Structure formats: C-alpha cells, structure tokens
Amino acid sequence: MADTPPNQNVVDADRKSRFTRLRSTLRILYHGQSPKALRFQAVVLIVDLAIIAFFVASPLLRDTESFLWIDYSIAALLAADLTARGLASSHPERWIRQLPVVVDVFILITLLAPTWFFNLGFLRILRLWTLSHSSTVWRPLEKRGLGGYRDKIQAVINLLVFIFVVTGFVYTAFAQRDAGIAGYVDALYFTVTTMTTTGFGDITLPGTFGKLVSIVIMIIGISLFVRLAQLIFRPNKVTFPCPQCGLTRHEPDAVHCKACGHLLNIPDEGHH
Known about the structure:
The protein is mostly helical. Helices cover 64% and strands 1% of the residues. The protein is flat, with a radius of gyration of 24 Å. It contains ten helices and two strands; from the N terminus they run ααααααααααββ. It has three domains: 1-145, no CATH class; 147-234, Orthogonal Bundle (Helix Hairpins), CATH 1.10.287; 238-272, no CATH class. The longest helix is centred in the N-terminal third of the chain and has 27 residues, at 35-61. α1 packs across α3 (67-88), α3 runs antiparallel to α5 and α6 (126-132) packs antiparallel against α8 (150-174).
C-alpha cells in the first residue's frame, strides 16, 4: 500500500485546521457576548422576524409573480443559518435531534418544494415557535433584566402560533366549500370566534369532520387562553437554584423550596 504523499498530508491538515477555525468562529458569533457577536445575533434575529412576516403574509402573496423568488431566497437563508448553527454546535448529532431544529428542517423542505407542500405551507409559522426557544433571542433580554417575562412572552407566542396554524389548516381544508370561508380572513375570523367560544354562527365547518375540528380548536384554544391569563396575573417567579435539589424557579417571597423543603435565601432585588 503506497504511503500518502507528504504534500497531501499538509493539505489535509490545513483543511482540517480551517474547518476547525470556521466552527470556532461560528460558535463565537452565535453564542458569544462580544459586541461583534451581539451585532451578528441582532442581524440574525431581524432576518428571522422578516422570514416570519413573509410566512404570515404568504397566503396573500402566493399568487404574485415574486412569491417563488422570495420563497427560494428565504430557503437559501434558512439553509445557511441551519448549516452555520450545526457547525457552531459542540455536539451536532445531538443538536440535529432537537425538536426546534427538526421543525426548521421541515420548514426548509416546504420552502424548497412550495408546490408539493402547498397544503402544509401554513406550518411554516412554527418558525415563530422555534424562534421563541432560541438562546439568541433570550440572552440579550436576560442581560437587560427581562428574563422574568420569558414565560409570558412564550405563552403569547404559543397562542399566536396556534391561531395561525389552525387558520391555515381551516383555509386549506374548507375554503370554497359550504363553510362560508371565501378567503384567509374568513378562516382567521372563524378560528378566533371558535377558540374564544364566541360562536357567532355565521361561519361553520360542514360535516362531522368540521364539528370535530371546531371542538379541538375550542378545547386547545381556551386552554392556551387560560394559561396566558395565569401567567399575566400570577406573580412573577424568580430564578434562584435550590442548593439541595436544583429547582430554579421559585416565588419571590419563598422561604422554603417547594420541591424538597430546603431553606432558601433568595436575594431581595429591592435591596442593594
């Protein structure tokens, strides 16, 4: 068996070194706290929000000439972002199995084949849900003392995602049928009136399947509303790891850990 030429070994080592430096640079940009990293994370966040705005407006833009151009451009951006995040991860195999990443991969597939996945295009709004679980969003907010609002913001996002997913499903499955749904706004109107149990009755889904869909919307929708109301009116919890069991979320005036009973000494933010 012939030995590998010395020059080839040098080339391979140089490629490996450059790849390692690339991963290190991406890790710093995505997870670092330097001004450069924070600016990069802010740009990524703005791009993510622009993508979500396109997903919300896509039912209205689908028939325009520029739709496919925008669709494929966003697919390229999302593919580049997913690749970069994977390279920045310390354990790519574990990273790719995370639910938000799986959702993003599915969204990328629908972007690459918009005509094949037309009926599932409404699921792209799940990108908003994956964004709400991103450390890129919460790290700067926590540095500014806004981490206590995380549960409330995520509850609002969960509700919005549910509304838009259900609206997309209703529009796709029942538009132009005997349901009174002539457009996307009608589907949104039906979703909100159903999940709030207002039920004006001017738009109804036909058949047994339509009734089952309405029941599911009401049950899940009212549950999300109750969850949001609880988080808004319930006192904020503080982050303080229990020395005994490690529970991190406690009531601001807690004296003992509710999980193990260990005596706590939570600092009072009002005193310095």
